[in-house]
UniProtKB/TrEMBL annotation:
Source organism superkingdom: Bacteria
Localization per record: Periplasm
Entries under InterPro entries matching the protein: Cyt_c-like_dom, Cyt_c-like_dom_sf, Cytochrome_c4-like, Cytochrome_c_Oxidase_Subunit
Upper taxonomic lineage: Bacteria, Pseudomonadati, Pseudomonadota, Gammaproteobacteria, Oceanospirillales
Name of the protein in its database record: Cytochrome c4
Organism: Spartinivicinus marinus
UniProt main location, coarse: periplasm
Amino acid sequence: MKKVLIGVMLTIGVTGLAHAAGDKNAGKEKAAVCGACHGPTGVSAADNFPNLAGQGERYLIKQITDIKSKKRVVLEMTGMTDNLSEQDIADIAAFYASQSAPLSVVPKSKVEPKDSKGTVDLKLAERIYRAGDLKKGIPACTACHMPTGKGNAYAGFPHLAGQHAKYIAKQLTDFREGDRTNDGDSKIMRAVAEKLSNKEIQALSYYVQGLYK
């Protein structure tokens, strides 16, 4: 499993290097319309819209480009990227990458959070995030997203810490069900998500939102 992950990281790390250099100042102006959903600086108030602040440029460029080309279908983004040029995308990505990522959501008490599905098992999530599940063939999330959840901007692995739990849960579910497929030829996220139960997805989503310790 470790060899597979290293191979994937190397593949992603050496591909897609060529893209227009982004101008964060130009990107601020171009991203103004995005603020309606993602917040003025990329920190969204609504938990169904992802935080973009602090994400790596490579990841942002890929996602915006994939949404534009319909490789990634996001209904809320319909028509929003149609008129963006390669330079526009690079500028917008540079702007959001330059913003401070949201702080992880720290619980006010030691009581584990609850959602509509019941109490969230954060201990289960921590085990999977940091050590994976050998029996199920699930690698540790830290291999790509780092122990802190900051991801790997160079390799294009996204920043997860502080991201909305609701958004994370939807992405993992979409990868599992095959509704999101833009994780490359390696299918690394689909391969992981298809092994996760609803309970594990729920727990991991809340865990990375705050990276509870």
